[in-house]
Amino acid sequence: MDLNGYFDPVSLERPEFENLDHTESFSHHISVHTPDHPIRELDKHQVALIGVPVDTNGFIKGSKEAPDQVRSKLYQLRKINSNLKIYDLGNIKNGGSINDTYFALRDIILELLERDIIAIIIGGSQDLSRGVFLALEKQKGLHQILTVDSMLDFSLNEDSLNSRNYLNQIVNTSGLKQFSVTNLGHQAYFVTEKQLQQLEKSYLESIRLGEARKEIRQAEPLIRDSRFISIDMGAVRHADAPGATLASPNGFFGDELCQLTRYAGLSEHTSILGFFELNPSSDINGQTAHLAAQSVWYFLEGLTHRIRENPIDTPEHIKKFIVTLNAAGHDIIFHKSTLSERWWMEIPVKNPDSGYNFFVSCSYEDYQQASNQEIPDRWWRFLNRLSNENE
User: Fold this and answer.
1) What's the average model confidence in pLDDT over 31-58?
2) DSSP readout, 41-81?
3) Under a CB-based contact definition with an 8 Å cutoff, are residues 183 and 230 in contact?
4) 8 A C-beta contact, residue 228 and residue 146
5) For residue 375, is it left (φ>0), alpha (ψ between -120 and 50) or beta?
């Protein structure tokens, strides 16, 4: 598929100043789609940057101006390891309708997945995540989605699609057969009891901001299993992200967002990362655009350290631990990597795609909890969810 028809070339003004000598800057070590250099030799690259300057269904407008702002800040950062080949494809052309944009994004993501290229999306409003869902629907397996958001973007009503209810197709419909969603960082005063009850009913979960910030590394297992990570910049506190479309005085700190995206870079499963809901008109000195760019940079830096390890593909580096848990009625099997010391739990439900049981990323604390005769919440959720689907 020729992607040139989907994208406008990159066109940026030269920055007033550059942080680094141009030989060390990010922009001089990537391939860029420009009017004079159309997209070609895409297969030689591992990462593609995609701008989506669209906020037609944004609950609050303004985020369509964000892609070039983030791109400009990213270009001024330090280059990434030269072994990681990156292509900035430009901005998706504005279609005749918002559905045209969703389906264009679907086609692009499918093409990149087929070529084993990781996609970084810079939006735009968060309902653009629908384009990714449309692509993943065409792929086999159960796809784990992670949203980083101060709110839960679904409603119990069938309203027209917008950036505040774009998860409806997953949480309230048959999408549950193909998707599992976890939200990270919700703030209790933005979430209704009915929403939390709906998550519980569907064996999905959302981690409160305070719990997530208490030990940020505990988010790593959630991120490690996620195919697509959709970030609302409003999940970051206003002091660090004043340009979020719906800013809040509370939220993640800027460095914590960078830590989360670095975990995503390290994850062998994360193939799509999206940044949404950044309104440049309310930003202060480009601070939020800077933060989004630095978060992209940390994701890419994590990618340079990504290794393939899991209980199925690299059993030679895995140690097995069996915990007899009386309350569960049978043993819980844990697996630990001798390379990275990362952990997995085995769910006693057969994965039809692999022929093995399902494996869920976890932490050492989950193993400790099971050793103390307590059922890990994540294990219980997945057991019920997968058992119900296989009945």
Assistant:
1) 96
2) -GGG-SEEEEEE---TT-SSS-GGGHHHHHHHHHHTSBPP-
3) no
4) yes
5) beta
Q: Is 179 helix (H, G, I), strand (E, B) or coil?
A: strand
Asked whether 219 and 260 are in contact (CB, 8 A), the reply is yes
Q: Comparing 69-83, 108-122, 189-203, 317-331, which segment has the lowest mean pLDDT?
A: 317-331
Using CB atoms within 10 A of its CB, is residue 54 exposed (0-12), middle (13-18) or buried (19+)? buried
Short-list 209, 166, 171, CA closest to 191: 209
pLDDT at res. 182? 96
Give the whole-angstrom CA distance, residue 150 versus residue 172: 20
What is the Cα–Cα distance from 153 to 276, expressed in whole angstroms? 13
Q: Where are the alpha helices (DSSP H) in 182-253?
A: 193-201, 209-214, 220-224
Before 124, cis peptide (omega within 30)? yes
Strand partners, 335: 320, 344
Interatomic CA distance for residues 195 and 168, integer angstroms: 11
How far lies 245's CA from each of 64, 233, 278, 292, 302, in Å?
11, 8, 6, 14, 27
Residue carrying the six token digits 């697996």: 335
d(CA 75, CA 86) in angstroms, rounded, equals: 12
Distances (CA, A) of 126 to 49, 59, 83, 349: 17, 9, 31, 33
Question: For 170-198, what is each residue's pLDDT tens digit?
Answer: 887 667 788 999 999 999 999 999 999 99
The yes-or-no verdict on residue 15 having pLDDT over 70 is no
For the cut 80, the answer to whether the pLDDT of residue 158 exceeds it is no
Q: Which two tokens stand for residue 210?
A: 């305070």
**What tokens were used for 90?**
């430009």
CA distances from 120 to 52, 112, 378 (A): 11, 11, 28
Look up tokens 């003004």; give the residue. 13
Q: Which domains does the chain have, with CATH numbers?
A: 3-303 (3.40.800.10), 315-389 (no CATH)
